[in-house]
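EI: anyone free to look at a 170-residue chain?
SC: sure, send it
EI:
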Amino acid sequence: MGIMLKRQVLWRAIVTPQLREEISEDLQEAVDEIEKRIQQLEFSTKAFLASQRGDLQQALEMRRLVEEERKRQEAARDELLQRKAQVEQLQDETEVVRGILEGWVEVNEGDDLMKALGGTEIVTRDGKVIGIRQIDAARAKTVAVAQAASGAGQDRLGQRAPLIITDGDG
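SC: here you go
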């Protein structure tokens, strides 16, 4: 009798003009959202400061906090713009890691657990699955470490960020 275990599945995509456009659009939407937040922040700050004519100390503290938040938002926007520029430089037909998905695997007595959990990757081209590969555990760990170190997976807004990780092994 076996049991089902959840495991990570690496999602790779073949770079095509359509993929570059899709990722660029996603990134631009995130940049636009940040720009809206910055504008709303500035508008709200002006209204608040106008209402705080008598309490200079509170107004100064509020201004400092707003400035810190504005800088965080601008840094997130700049990071997204940098990613967008990277996407434009991706070469057609290369593979990039788009994310880590979850999948299930059945494990029975006598199975090699590391092999079962070790690695599967799905390869897509323009959203269509074109390959399912088994990868060795060492390579799977290398990609997972690269993804963790890059902060990939979610951006500063908590949204799924497009991944642009290449590990040289197509």
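EI: The chain has a mean pLDDT of 81.
SC: 👍
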